[in-house]
Amino acid sequence: MALQFHPTTFKFHNSPSFALPRSHQLRSHRVFMASSTFNVTSQEIGKDRKPYMPPREIQVQKMHSMPPQKLEIFKSLEAWAEQNLLVLLKPVETSWQPQDFLPDPASEGFHEQVKELRERTKEIPDDYFVVLVGDMITEEALPTYQTMLNTLDGVRDETGASLTAWAIWTRAWTAEENRHGDLLNKYLYLSGRVDMKQIEKTIQYLIGSGMDPGTENNPYLGYIYTSFQERATFISHGNTARLAKEHGDIKLAQICGTIAADEKRHETAYMKIVEKLFEIDPDGTILCLADMMRKKVSMPAHLMYDGKDDNLFEHYSTVAQRIGVYTAKDYADILEFLVQRWNVEKMTGLSGEGRRAQDFVCKLAPRIRKLEERAQGRVKQSSPLPFSWIFGRELNV
Ligand SMILES: [Fe+2]
Ligand SMILES: [Fe+2]
């Protein structure tokens, strides 16, 4: 059980809805309505759903919320971005590649190495695999995240090969991230423990659905969102590394740990951007931070669907919460960490509106944590549910 945040009230739900899309919280302005009723089969839904539409509602999305005069800020930060962001990228020649962690298909010992891999993964429980698969699918929807970054006014890659520091960062970030899904996908494939066709279908559905982060073409909101998300993935890959070690697969632990280290470096970059925005435009930045937190940071794969389970993302999140890979507590911890990192509490010289936003943001993490503790104390009801990714075997959600 976890909590859901509304602008004025908190509510508890039976699933870890800290990770739910914002569209679940909004009661109006829906442009698309697909059935999200629990246990409705894909055949039944299929009657109303066009094949290219997301599995759930998307509310009307606000666009271009950054005042046009602020475009200048990003133009003036070009040199800063070059000196502060691009230095955080690793050269390709010294970067790790998925092949560094995988059996070499050109080597004599390939079959033996695959056998060893399968031996190592044999004892890992299904709930771990469901979470790792969900993490991998999230990584595999990378085209969506590059698209999202390129919706942001003032920093988008205008040509596909733009030489602005912002565009270079976005392309190189994407190129680094591309290795994550690639490596996890191949490892999971070789393990033989998961239904690859179902996983591949989920990836195709997810990329086709996109995401709705509520960033409004606004780079302030966009970089707050990515700061939060990179830290969230750093935490979850760190936890899958820890659990892989506990289950005896050191190689998988190393893989997840290596990916987590990339996420950390990316988090540093995005946090630096927001830190700079706080320096230049404290009022504008605090208002955006409060706005993002009021809307809640939806997870990038919130529109996940496998053709079977209409609440797949919630179910995967429930398992992730249960095994401690990503929890409501982590959400509060990330917020608290960012508030400290950006020195939000001690910020002075804000407008009245800015001070109210500051107050809201500073009090939010303890509020979330308190509610989470209360939720933990309640009796949890769970029931078995089949996951297509593990050949329909059931897990408690
Ligand atoms: Fe990643
Ligand atoms: Fe990332």
From TrEMBL:
GO molecular function: metal ion binding; stearoyl-[ACP] desaturase activity
Keyword Iron listed: yes
BP terms from Gene Ontology: fatty acid biosynthetic process
Residues that coordinate or bind Fe cation 2: E177, E230, E263, H266
UniProt xrefs under SUPFAM superfamilies: Ferritin-like (SSF47240)
Subcellular location: Plastid, Chloroplast
Gene Ontology CC annotation, any one: chloroplast stroma
Keywords tagged on the record: Chloroplast, Fatty acid biosynthesis, Fatty acid metabolism, Iron, Lipid biosynthesis, Lipid metabolism, Metal-binding, Oxidoreductase, Plastid, Transit peptide
InterPro entries, per the entry: Fatty_acid_desaturase-2 (IPR005067), Ferritin-like_SF (IPR009078), RNR-like (IPR012348)
Cofactor requirements of the protein: Fe(2+); Fe cation
Pathway entry: Lipid metabolism; fatty acid metabolism
Principal subcellular localization: plastid
Cofactor binding remark: Binds 2 iron ions per subunit.
Entries under Pfam families matching the protein: FA_desaturase_2
Signal peptide: none
Binding residues annotated for Fe cation 1, in chain numbering: E139, E177, H180, E263
Similarity comment: family membership: Belongs to the fatty acid desaturase type 2 family.
Function: Converts stearoyl-ACP to oleoyl-ACP by introduction of a cis double bond between carbons 9 and 10 of the acyl chain.
Protein name: Stearoyl-[acyl-carrier-protein] 9-desaturase, chloroplastic
Species for this entry: Nepenthes gracilis (Slender pitcher plant)
Taxonomic classification: Eukaryota, Viridiplantae, Streptophyta, Embryophyta, Tracheophyta
